[in-house]
Write a structure and sequence with these properties.
- The protein is mostly helical and about 180 residues long.
- It has 5 helices and no strands.
Length: about 180
């Protein structure tokens, strides 16, 4: 309960401030973008930030399913949604000529759907699981801020840096064709 509220009331606003700074700064101009314009790049950055919040929430909801003993099912569900994302983006590119912005939107849509499905399943698996955004205990938030920041930083490191970082570095140093 409070972990979700921590994401909503602490992580998401901090991320929103960061995104506003990035969107208003010339940071995107340092990337040697040749196939997409800077507006699309800013929107994609915003979508990635939203996905970060969604996937962090998903991680908390998955922990509820794990506590109910649903390990294998979670892996099936995550693999299935990633497969749907891959197929959706591939079909979009091949059949409809999707650009990077549309691909990012498909990816975010699948992530949102995944959180809704996992939230529904977590609620069914654990009767104690409730999302109540009115519950806000400052003492608990203070005690959980460091572990939550570590969890969020772990998601950023694996999703943002390890997966996307190499692509951004290649783009900056060698141009879009290298990616």
């Amino acid at each position: 309960q409070m972990s979700i509220n921590l994401i909503v009331y602490v992580i998401a606003p901090l991320l929103l401030c960061f995104i506003i700074i990035v969107d208003l700064s010339p940071a995107l101009y340092f990337l040697k973008l040749t196939t997409i314009n800077h507006t699309d790049a800013a929107i994609i950055t915003d979508i990635v930030a939203a996905q970060f919040v969604l996937l962090t929430t998903r991680g908390i909801l998955i922990a509820i399913l794990y506590s109910a003993g649903s390990y294998g099912f979670v892996y099936y569900l995550l693999s299935g949604t990633k497969l749907c994302e891959l197929v959706g983006i591939s079909l979009g590119v091949v059949l409809f000529g999707f650009h990077p912005l549309q691909a990012a939107m498909v990816s975010a849509g699948i992530a949102c759907l995944e959180v809704v499905i996992i939230g529904f399943l977590a609620r069914r698996a654990s009767s104690w699981m409730r999302i109540n955004l009115r519950v806000f205990d400052l003492d608990w938030i203070a005690s959980q801020a460091r572990p939550a920041f570590g969890f969020a930083l772990g998601n950023l490191a694996t999703q943002g840096i390890l997966i996307q970082g190499a692509r951004v570095l290649l783009n900056v140093t060698l141009g879009g064709g290298a990616v």
